[in-house]
Amino acid sequence: MVLNKKIRQFFLPSLTPAFLVRALAVALAAYLFFGYLCTPLLIHGQSMEPAYRNGGFNFCWRGRYLFSNPKRYEVVAVRFAGEKVMLLKRVVALEGEWVEFRDGKLFVNGREIDEPYVRYPCHWNLPPRRVERDCVYVVGDNRNMAIENHLLGQVSIRRIAGVPLW
Amino acid sequence: MVKFRSIIIGVLVVAVGIGMVLYLSPSEEKKIKKQFRLLAEWVSKEPGETPVTMAHKAKSIGTLFDQTCEFKIPAYSFSGSYTPEEISGYATQGRLSFSQLDLRFYDLQIVFPEKEIARVTFTARLTGKLAVGESVNEAHEVESILKKIEKRWLFSQFEAVEVLKK
Fold first, then answer.
1. Cβ of A44 and B121 within 8 Å?
2. Which of residues A62 and B11 earns the better pLDDT score?
3. Which end of chain B is more exposed for a tag (fewer CB within 10 A), N or C?
């Protein structure tokens, strides 16, 4: 009987001031956490395969770069005008570095970079270019298409919204 | 308890009232957002669209533009000033190459630099399938200028913002 009352109270709670305050606090915390700190991501596109599959779900952890800058190999979410649509890309070169592709191989400052996350064949060629101040160079892991059809390039650090949670 | 419930009901009634007033009063921002909603609706294409719908949409698209509208969209090699009739023609041609097309605008940031002029920065996302079967999934940051002419906000400029610089 007591258990029944407890179950009933759990699913159909009385509209008391204490309950409303608790419900409001939970709603506000969830809104702030999932709206600003750890925003849900639905992945569309194959640009980061096989690490991140088309149709996958993740969260964008926004606190990652509050006190630091992106590092090489990190996967980052790049925002457009707002944060409803973002690009998921991998940082391959940092400010001041020279980046180029030679027959699909990535070179930074003239040295070949090992990229174990690239699994599909790639034959890109891109002449050397220097990453500008306050920028990083980002590329997708899936380079199994013409370089003209892939979104890559240097992006301002200010546009980096965070990192995927996993 | 009865008093508390009365307060809650009173607060809800006031909130609904405020919501209704805000919803029903068409602010300038709302009018601008409506133009974007119409543009997205008329550019988008459902599979198996009838010729009548196609003609209606093509004609309607032109009504959203100023006497001349300037485009600077290097990704599509589309630059220059065009009349509403020319824009309708290009839109018809472009839509014909798709079997299905979905255009959506996100994160509209509207500012009014001068009276009756609005600058809108937004993310445009284009998804669909070309008539030849290839899938399209693109996102671009765009800046647009709208002018208020005879109580209507009309598009007078579109310029793509370079987020990733190759």
1. no
2. A62
3. N
Kindly state the average pLDDT of the residues A123-131. Answer: 97
Tell me the shortest Cα–Cα distance from B166 to chain A, in angstroms.
Answer: 4
Question: Tokens at residue A125, please?
Answer: 């060629």
Q: How far is B55 from chain A (nearest CA, A)?
A: 31
pLDDT for B140 beyond 80: yes
CATH number of this structure's domain B28-161, picked from the four choices 3.40.1190.10, 3.30.70.3270, 3.10.450.50, 3.40.605.10: 3.10.450.50
Q: State yes or no: pLDDT of A46 exceeds 80.
A: yes
pLDDT of B18 above 90: no
Q: Which residue is it, tokens 């029944």? A: A4
Q: Rounded distance, CA B39 to CA B33, Å?
A: 10
Which among A20, A45, A152 has CB closest to B166?
A: A152
Q: Which of B107, B121, B127 is closest, CB to CB, to A84?
A: B107
Residue B58 burial (CB count, 10 A): 20
Containing structural domain, residue A130: 43-164
Q: In this complex, which of B8, B109, B125 lies closest to A85 when CB atoms are compared?
A: B125
